[in-house]
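My current task is to audit a protein record that another person submitted. What it holds is a sequence and that sequence's fold in token form. Thanks in advance; the entry in question is below.
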Amino acid sequence: MISRLRRCGAVASKQVKNGHWYVRYRDLNSIQRTSSVESEKNADRLILQIDEWLAEGIDPNRAMATFKETAEAFFGEHVIPNCKRKTMRDYQSAFERYHLRRWANTPLRRITKHDVKNARKAIESTGISAKRVNNVMVPVNKMFSWAEEQGYIYENPAKGLKPLQTKQEEMRYFTPEKLNQLVEACDMHDGFYRPHLLFLGWTGLRLGELRELRFKDIEWDLGRPRIHVQRTAQDDAELAGLPKSGKKRWVGVPPHIAEVLRRQEELFKTTDDDLVFPDHNGRRLDSSNLRQRVFHRTLEKLGWREARPKPKRFPKGKGARVGRGYCPPTEPRSSETPRPQEYRLHDLRHTYAYIFLNRGQGDIYALKETMGHAQISTTMKYAHFSRDDAVRAAEALEDAWNKTEKIEHDNHNESVEGTKSTKSVG
């Protein structure tokens, strides 16, 4: 048995089978839609609300969407067409690990600013760093802004929520001496990857740019090569895109790195389209292998990184699976005991900036162009590397003071000699 109520052109029907009310209506495109509610009172309210939305030109289907439905539309219409694969994976991880568990079936319009603040506090309580909390909140803030533009909600509930204050960590880098020590200690596959680490440290290329570098990108000018950086590898796929800033650039190569390029040509060049730095199997370099099996193991060998437990093939007892093996469970790290700061592969890029500013010409604007930054503000984070600037400034002030002293001394001598000559004449 089905009972029907008519309100303002919409139809609410109650089915005795499950005791739920169904509100049927036509959206802005005249397509019939159905929504279920738990009571007759809620059905009447929804009918009036739908009529208000239709009168204001708002699509009721979007206005009643849940958080999960909006997230799926956000990914399908915005993230996948417009974002890089790494960004898409980061967004997906944040939604699956934190936001969908809390709001999956919650109507999007019922989420308030207070709810967003409480959600962030709950994420903070897990013990992750403030920087990580801010990164987790970015995709949901983006989704709310997109939903506001698309008519899902009237206002972004995360708007105006200030990011958590993060502790500024000291930027890490290798001095030229430590960089050479790192390269010499890299004995994986008989030192096959030593040129890779050396080139990253002395050219400042991003890892994706190194993986996609080909011999046709090298231009030799009177024996001094320069690199035309015009592509970057897209994660571990066989696709390539523009560099991170979206612009191509030229990078000069110092003489001792030019010898590295000549050896790479002798070993791997058959055509101009061949990769300059492939892996030991001749294929495109795998970023995870270079980072974990080469870079991290070399750091552990030198004692510059805390050794991690190796995965076991056959687990005994409880544990979290990692790939084909598993690692024993560890206690979650609290916010009071932050993870110790360790070297990362990206610190080789910082190393180039340090050498450029501290032992090179020290021009921050030239560094911006060489490193491929879109904004000068990004390059300014390396300004403190130029520690010699303070020394040079002090020397310049001292020179200015000495010149002033000399001028005053000369003026004094001239005045004294003038006085003596006047007396002699008199």
Remarks:
- Confidence is low (pLDDT under 50) at residues 1-12, 318-338.
- The CA atoms of residues 216 and 272 lie 5 Å apart.
- The longest strand covers residues 2-7.
- The chain is about 50% helix and 10% strand.
